[in-house]
Fold this protein.
Amino acid sequence: MAQLVTGAGLGLRREFSNEFDAVSQSCVDFMEVAPENWIPFGGKFIKQFEQYTERFPFVFHGLSLSIGGPTPLDINFVKQIAKFIQKYNIRSYSEHLSYCSDDGHLYDLMPIPFTEEAVHYVAGRIKQVQDIIGMKLAMENVSYYAAPGQEMTELEFLLAVLEEADCDLLLDVNNIYVNSINHRYDAQEFLKALPRERIAYAHIAGHYDEADDLKVDTHGADVKSGVWSLLETAYQQFGVFPTLLERDFNIPPLPDLFAEVAKIKAIQQKYLAKQIEGKAIA
């Protein structure tokens, strides 16, 4: 697929939305927001957002679509998303391959059963969203801690949804790492089985070490060495793709965030150089 953003990105949080000069002079190439955190607002907040969109390409990462939920899709909300995408030239819209509502918001990301029936159900809803927004939806491989009614592996389920819905993938490297430990599978084998042509961009984030065999996806800590290594495996396997640092809690000073974004860029440059060297030798 054609990549509509490049390089290394960072999520825009309202906590530092008034620090435009610092962000604009950093190594950040693109930014991401949750549309639910910005669509309802006007005035100062939307002016700050517009200032950023004039400087950076943006992607959306949604929180409340509930693509696997049992209740009908909120079509009015999806239409609002479509208008916002068009107004601010949002390059990609991603959501979680999970659900978070059932006649009310559950305030958590619940696992979709890994079944053939669920594949058809979710794929149909993804197609419905794509028809409204006029672009492919990118679905994120999510972290999960239970697999109710499991008939397929996580990988089989993910691949089946991507194929049937003909949608993109938001590759969350940390979630593969966390799930591989919690559910005892090989992270590198999982990663290498993914379709490169569907990767819109990637997330990398920190997690909490509850125990040797239990990791909790928090986005509230620095990225750990095992996750950095898995990102390098991904670049080696697929080539370099856009990658964004997620940090939702315990947000450190901006220079600390910029340092992790810079590390993403350094790893990207390392593998871009290898690609160029390989072509030269060939």
In short: The chain has one domain: 8-281.
